[in-house]
Amino acid sequence: MQQSAPENLISQASADRLIAAHDGDVALLYIYLQRTGSDLEGAARELCRTMGEIEAAHEKLLRIWAAGEKAKCRVDEIKCPLSAGRLGDLLVELCERPNLTGIYHYAGLEPISRYDMARRIAEKFGLSADEFVEPVRGDREIDLTLDMSCLARYVKTRSCMFGELLDEMELPADLADWLKSKTGRVPVKRFKL
After folding, report:
1. Would you state the pLDDT for residue 52?
2. The pLDDT value given to residue 65
């Protein structure tokens, strides 16, 4: 006898996208925020993750590279990346606006492949993209871009291009010596005034 499926907590389409992301932390964070609407610090606390794990996927790449490995990134998987901080700002705005209801998409403004993202992250930190990023293809092309035009006209929280996300990325302190050995320099932390 087949058991009945439990009540769906997440749509089939959302589940498919999370599985395609190949990132358990991203999936866990998405489900947590969808169910609780909590802030990112609350998510880090409840999911037993550091804010770094919640905020910075670029750190995963840097750690792979510091371990002497190439990052294998798909050239045929297109996304519109957005930082956790910007998403958090949007969630706060939505919580403050109870009159705005419904299901909306929110994402970055620039469609980009995982491969191109990794190359640009390597270049941002002064690394040779060819040395650290290997292109791979999946069984089929995946387009995970989202149309956020409906929500964009109602909110003040601005989305961004990938280059703006690069500006927000910081080098984890424990990787400074490794990066200096590879590039001869360490990025300077810049503060917004």
Report:
1. 56
2. 83
